[in-house]
Amino acid sequence: MKLSGIKYLTDQGVENIWKNKMMAFATFCVLLISLLLVGMSSLFYLNMNSMIAGLNDQNEITVIMKLGTTEDDNKSAEESIKNIENVKTIIFKSKEQALKETMQSIPSADKVLSSSSTYVEGDASFMPDTFIVTVKNTELIDDTSAQIMQIGTVQETQSSPQVAEFLRELRHVVTLIAGTIIIALSIVSMIMISNTTKASVFARREEIQIMKYVGATNTFIRTPFFVEGLVTGVFAGIGSFFITWLIYSSAYDILVNKQILMQAVGVNNLIPFANIRFVVLAAYLCVGALVGALGSVLSTRRHINV
Length: 306
Description:
Blueprint: H1 3-19, H2 21-57, E1 60-65, H3 71-82, E2 87-93, H4 95-105, H5 109-114, E3 130-135, H6 141-149, E4 154-158, H7 161-202, H8 205-213, H9 218-257, H10 259-262, H11 273-299, H12 301-304
Antiparallel strand pairs: 1-3, 1-4, 2-3
Helix pairs in contact: 1-9, 2-7, 2-9, 2-11, 7-11, 9-11
C-alpha cells in the first residue's frame, strides 16, 4: 500500500471517531475504567509487597554484650559478627546512648533510676553495650542468633523469628489474593472492552458490507478501525494515567503525614509516584493502544466475512 493510501486510511480512522462520537466515547470510558481497575490493583499490590519487605528488613537481632566489656572487646565482637554470612548490617549502641534513649522515652525513668542505690547520675556502667544486627535472610535468623551467641563476650541475643515467619506467610497470601484479583479484573475488563467494540462495529455493519461488496480489501476496511481503536486507547491511557496520578499522590500524602501510626506498618516503604510515573504512563499507553486497536480489528471479522 502506498504512503498516500496509508495517510488516507489513517485520516478516515481519526475522522470516524468524530462521526461516531457516542460509540467512541463509550469505548473510551470502558477502556479508561478497565485500565484504572487493573492499574490501581497492580500498584496496590506493588506497595503492599514493598511495605511487607520493609517490615521484613526491620526484623532485627539485638545483641546484648556482657557487663564490663571493653572497647577492644566490642570491636572484636563486631568483627566476628560481620564475618557471619547472613549478617547484612550491624550498628553499635553504647551503654551511654542506651541510657540517654531510656531517659527520653520513659518519663518516669529519672525518678526510678534516682531511687536506685546502684545509679549515679551520668554513670551508665550498669547498662550493657548492644549491637543492632539486620540479616539478609530472615529464614536463617535462628541460626544467625546461635552463631552470635558463640562469641564469648555476648550475654544474650533477642529476636522475633515468629515475626519473620508471619511476614513470609503474609507476603504469600497478599501475592495470591492480589494476583487473583488482577487476573479477574483483567478478564472482566477484556469482556467489557470486547462487547463495547463489537457494539461500535455492529452499528456500522452496513457500511462495512457495502465496502466489501464494491471490492474493498480486508486491510482497507480494517485499517480505519485499527486507527480508531488505537487513538481511543491512547487517550484512555492518558486519562487513566492522570487519574491514577491524582488518586495515588493524594493517598500517598495522607499516609506519609500519619508518620507515628504508619511507620509501624512500613509506610516508609511506599513507592513515591515520581519513581514509577514513566513506567505507569508507558504501561497505560501500550496496553490501552494495543487493546483498543486489536479489539476494533477483531470485531470487524464477522462483518467482513460476507
